[in-house]
Design a protein that fits this description.
The complex is a heterodimer of chains A (292) and B (305). With 292 residues, chain A is an all-alpha fold. Chain A is 70% helix and 0% strand. Chain A has 13 helices and no strands. The longest helix of chain A has 37 residues. Chain A is globular, with a radius of gyration of 23 Å. The relative contact order of chain A is 0.14. With 305 residues, chain B is mostly helical. Classes of the chains: A mainly alpha (292), B mainly alpha (305). At the A-B interface, α5, α6, α11, α12 and α13 of A face α1, α5, α6, α7 and α10 of B.
Amino acid sequence: MMSESELRWEIFRRSLMRAKPAMLGGVFLILLVVVSLSAPLIAPQDPGMVDVNLRLKPPVWMEGGSASYMLGTDALGRDILSRLIYGGRVSILVGLSSVVISGVIGIVLGLVSGFFGGKIDDLISGFSEIQLAFPFILLAITIMAVVGPGLLNIIVVLGISRWVAYGRVVRGQVISIREREFVEATRALGYPLYRILFMQILPNTLSPLIVIATFAVAGNIISESSLSFLGLGVPPSVVTWGGMLSEGREYLRGAWWMATFPGLAIMATVLSINLIGDWLRDYMDPRLGDDM
Amino acid sequence: MGAYLFRRFLRAVVVVVGVSFISFAVLFLSGAPTDTMVGEDWTVEEVQKLKEDLGLDKPWFVQYALYVGRAVQGDFGESLRYRQPAFELIMERLPATLELALVALVLSIILAFPVGVISATQRGSPYDHGGMLFALLGQSMPVFWLGLMLILIFGVSLRWLPVSGRSGWEHLVLPAIALSTYSIARNARVVRSSMLEVLRHEYVKTARAKGLSEWIVINLHVLRNSMIPVITIIGLEFGHLLGGAVIVETIFSWPGVGRLLIQAVYAKDFPLVQASVTITALIFVSLNLIVDMMYSVLDPRVRLH
């Protein structure tokens, strides 16, 4: 006999096995994480190594290409493939850590807002509405313009720009279950508030939160690369896919590979995450449909 | 109805006050704007005099009140770079941005509907798979990369279309495609899932059982009822397109507010940054308000919330 948790795991596993696109996305992401983590070991070249004699070499399959520089070199003779491998680290780091920040802010404010209601709720809801009045990219550009480019800055800015989605879901769920018997019973027994919030209410909101967080990782990766492309994200001394694209923009005519490959890397990553997100949404809650 | 609209309007006012506060904070936190105005040969007294003239020696809440007082009269201060009122600079460029966003919106509606409707009515067919594959790719592509690829293919290789500036419709083609792709992809999925939702209902089965033709079932019963979520999303879409225009305008050198904003950011021209962000946010808030009002007319249940 399987225990309940084993059974759940089995259902999860079988559902995933059936979902081929999500599997494909998963495999790509695992590969990406492994490659990024072991970047110093597997990158064929030093990503920062400048050699003007090697500048603007085309990919290996074109005339003049070389097997040591599979995807060609940029205007400073740096290896595109190695830079792609290193750039993946930034995307993953920013994508995940900013989701953690917005998740924590959103969950805490949503719990407080939904559980206490009244003035606090009005205040938090009002604040989220003001934040939503700015198109997201505008808000991020504005803040980055003031604080300046930087890895930590971009993580924090993306983190605080996207908490509202989590806050709203948690608040809605809290309101719908705070009057239910099992919550009332725990209150009557005199359990401390944080226990009720975190042990009883939060687990009930987990499924939609996981789905939102998955899509948010993809959204953050695109936002980071957009801001880095504009020169407002991560400083140029750090290799990023957005930064590579921005350099490639100047050489579109002569060296198409400079701008093409980083974009493909972003697209493949975001697509993989979205495929997993689509599947997770159906798996977690088939009623959610696909129009979130 | 009146009470609902009034409450909704009040909320929009609160939001506008919040927006003004945040955009004020941007300038306030960016440090003294006098730094870029002061010449190297200025004395301490002269700098102090300039700060007093601009009201920068006063506490922040007085400065905020002065800022709001001027802003409601359309005075957002002077651009440090252009030495012109920021409001004028933005109004000059607003038509270009609105034109781009509007064309993208129209493209999005014209293309997303057929793709979504065909995908839903022929679920599982090659059309459905093709449409949804396009939608997935469209949602995963960063807009600036799509823009560069369009330039590379249609501008550099094929030489079919111009890739920068604004004069004549052919300049509009590539930026509008770049800006609308994400929106087409997303709306196609929304239309599809919204229709699938309605197709599940009993009354659709009834209509079919009555022997009505599939054309009538789809047009009369399904399409109409799946429009409400679609209308809301399309209303809000325009606002998102205004945000996306910032990047597309930069790539295609489209002379709109987005490009002005990015150039102002590079030049540390904070009064201009502040003014463009505030005005874009105001347009966004007004659009949301209009959409909500239309929505409450279309679907009376909304007013109860």
